[in-house]
Amino acid sequence: MYDMATRRRALDLVRQGRSLNSVSLETGISRSALRAWQARIEPSPRMKAGSSCAGPADPLAYAYLLGLYLGDGCISAHPRGGHLLRIACADEWPGLIEQCRAAITAVRPQEKVYLLQRQGCVAVTSYGRHWPCLFPQHGPGKKHERRIALEPWQQEIVDAHPWEFVRGLIHSDGCRITNWSTRTVGGVKKRYEYPRYFFTNKSADITGLLTSTLDRLGVAWTQANRQNTSVARKESVALMDLHVGPKY
């Protein structure tokens, strides 16, 4: 019911970093239609020349899943020869668990997704042979003890969908909280509350991927120390609320 020009105009809004929800509200086009158009109009890239691995089926979902993986994900070899992708999601965020499951399904529709209960968290898990191709940051040891950098094809996806990448990072290793302070006005001490976003990660490389993306999006941030990044300016918090939002 929509011509190609309408589809491309809608996808141009998404490429600007807009969320599917905001584009849907502005254009009246459903989010499911926008996702389907991305898959048809923007074919996924190949991993590397000569590789048998195809790119993610849904680049938008992949940008979000990449953020989740860099924060709380791991890949391990399976005795049958494939690999297990695991993303740890805390029990108190059932919405995050569902979003993670949906993202994995969108990126690799042919793979099944399992929810494995652990103490205090759920491991959203999927078996497949191509997870190391999709997440080449996989390797021995802890992420913060080795270099983490995006492949060119991954950077292209992040550049096309920066807000989804930021949302994945914040939903994995970040939070939205309400801070407060007191100020004396006219001899009366008053309490003021203000929201802010935090991101905590031991890897300087992963933190750098977040902050460089925030810079491109015009979001002001500060770094309290090597592991903690904060977004507190009112206008920047408003942008984060529009495109990221708290976990639920």
Account of the protein in words:
- Among the domains are: 1-42; 169-243, Homing endonucleases (Endonuclease I-creI, Roll).
- By secondary structure, it is α+β, with helices and mostly antiparallel strands.
- Helix content is 44%, strand content 23%.
- It starts with a helix and ends in a 5-residue tail after the last helix.
- α4 packs across α5 and α8 (162-173) crosses α9.
- It has helices at 4-15, 20-27, 31-41, 59-72, 94-107, 131-134, 152-160, 162-173, 204-217, 234-243, and strands spanning 73-77, 83-90, 113-118, 121-128, 174-185, 188-200, 222-223, 228-231.
Tell me roughly what share of residues is in helical segments: 40-55%
The side-by-side strand order for the widest beta sheet comes to 1-2-4-3
CATH fold type of the domain at 169-243 = Endonuclease I-creI
The rough form would be described as globular
Helix-strand topology string: HHHHEEHEEHHHEEHEEH
Number of helices: 10
CATH class of the domain at 169-243: Alpha Beta
- Rg value: 19 Å
Rounded average pLDDT? 88
Distance between the termini: 35 Å
Low-confidence stretches: none
- Give the full name of the CATH homologous superfamily of the domain at 169-243: Homing endonucleases
Largest sheet: 4 strands, antiparallel
